[in-house]
Amino acid sequence: MAGLDDQTPIPTEIKLHQGSRVMELSFDDGAHFELSYEFLRVNSPSAEVRGHGPGQEVLQTGKRDVHISHVEAVGNYAIKPVFSDGHDSGLYSWDYLYMLGQRKDALWDDYLARMAAAGASRDPDLNPPPASGGGCGSGGCSSGGCGGGGHGR
Fold first, then answer.
1. Which run of H or E residues covers position 17?
2. pTM > 0.85
3. For the domain bounded by 11-126, which CATH number is listed?
4. pLDDT < 70: residue spans in the chain
């Protein structure tokens, strides 16, 4: 999160469209974005997805059919979507959501390229189970490294 200031666009409306699995966002500067649930999930700002530093990102596979069960407000600066795969640790600040909307095409193309390079699939039943390691999502962060664990469901 780059930080909120008086120049940060603020959402005026956030709608979840469950049939099409799209979050529709309207901002106070007139910007309007439609972001798929899959796109939001694979670009989660959480440590489970982004890692703890550069080069530690974890490619999110098998998320094509993910749903958002509900969204929780986080103060006056962010939302926390709760996804059907149990992921609920991403705090999507207003500036992060705005950036996702602005860069949607480039971020999606990059994601698809990384999936192709890894030989992975967006479909949940076509991916091998993850190797047990010790990183985020495996329980290896339960001592506090990822915020106390529990996010890697």
1. strand 11-17
2. no
3. 3.30.2020.30
4. 1-3, 127-153
